[in-house]
Structure prediction request, 55 residues.
Amino acid sequence: MRHFLVMAVFAALAAIVLGAMGKDTTRERWLYGFKVFAEFMVIGLVLSWILYFIP
Prediction:
């Protein structure tokens, strides 16, 4: 469970930084930040399930 929390914190911090720097308007920044957060979480979970089955 600790690894998941670390991944979520990293995804949130990366989304904040990339969202703040990536777009022009406030609405675009929020949407881009949420998109980046979701992508980090989904890709992390998919990779964890793939690597779980590899010995």
Notes: The helical segments are 2-22, 26-52. Residues 2-52 form one domain. The chain has one domain: 2-52. The CA atoms of residues 24 and 40 lie 22 Å apart.
